[in-house]
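ESCALATION

Customer reports they have been waiting on this structure for their group meeting. Please prioritize. Original submission:
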Amino acid sequence: MKIGILSRNQGLYSTQRLFEAGEKLGHEMHIIDPLRCYMTIATQNPTVHYRGRELKDFDAIIPRIGASITFYGTAVVRQFEMMGVYSVNESVAISRSRDKLRSLQLLARRGIGLPVTGFAHSTKYTQDLIELVGGAPLVVKLLEGTQGIGVVLAETNQAAESVIEAFRGLKEQILVQEFIQEAKGADIRCFVIGDKVVAAMKRQGKQGEFRSNLHRGGSASIAKLTPEERSTAARAARIMGLNVAGVDLLRSNHGPVVMEVNSSPGLEGIESATQKDLASAIINYVSKQARPGKTRTRGKG
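Update from on-call: job pushed to the front of the queue and completed.
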């Protein structure tokens, strides 16, 4: 098969692992920078061009679209879909998962456990918003934040009010969420391929840090999931319409709650923690699923 990996940086661990795994399994692999693609949008013959040549005869693409290029990156994925190329994660599903508010609303509608979350435009009723999510301590998150950036723990109601007003003063859109204290700075990253959780790791924040992101100095170890956690992660990915996803869970007193569903989950931390070859698993999934024109998004909304 001829498979394209849409990635801005061919030196990234995840990109390299997918490329090497694909070649090892006998596929023709190409790394394509989505920002260097340009397109002709036409009814009869939509095309994608890259560095002066037309990209033809691809059987499948694996989007690795960073948050900062979601708009253009998903436009490129959508163009491949118009050409009948199979995308392991489709443009609608990627856009859906990148919108934190939209994704939480979709998950809540389908009964997935979530932290109590507040959202508002005006700062006039900030104190009421804080009370609605259970009061301090609480977490304030930028809608556009990634890798723990733009996530603040406010330990008092006064601090929460100040942080919310500061973010809104900068015209930033924010979410306010209950703080799951019993998680003790740890979360579970579940790696989903198809309808199955194929690997899971526990990420523990460093001393004094409530965010567990590995980019912020957190540590990773293999995690054993309960049946409820496994089911929750698989359902969350399916609701988003993602075939490959990283689902982040917190262990709360009332069961697993979903923090985020990631459409381009990194491979380095979880492959190291679990010693599983997830890159090959993704390539094998793509090779079994890819058919011309097979680009129907599974989720809704």
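Sent to customer with the following note: The first strand starts at residue 2 and ends at 6.
Escalation resolved.
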